[in-house]
């Protein structure tokens, strides 16, 4: 979703010859909280608000993919919230992270405390969780101060200060070029499918006209005061 907003100011955008770049069909959101306990309260508020707006239900999950019986299985927190809407069909995938002055300027999604919360045994695991591509953590300076991204005709949302660095926490194959212009091969590898049948350029190269359209769209976002792909061309 962040890639789509930086590239198009919406979840999708047109290219040349009537082609569409549909970056993603679901909505991915990051929510920052000051503590693990704060997330427990925040996610209930989010679900209540979505239900009031017609969403059907939400489920909690952990980004820790570990076998039952392992330390990671028992110590991982439920940092994810997946919410579902039936009409129109839509999935919202919310990842929570903790950013507190107490943690030396880092943010994390998982922190393991074998001897209990607040003990000296607590540590950020490097090889599990949603941010394992960056050893489980990001600098808070990569996220804050937040910028603004256009999210459709009448909506804007907060966006991380350094979008590429944030994306690299989730996927280690991200680079500036691959987010500024559609990279269908990486998208296919990551998701197993193409987002939209109108992505007919899957066996073609992007044209110079396509790239020019994307550059112009970024310039328009810049002029309106929003974040864009301009730094990554």
From TrEMBL:
Superkingdom of origin organism: Eukaryota
Q: What is this protein called?
A: Uncharacterized protein
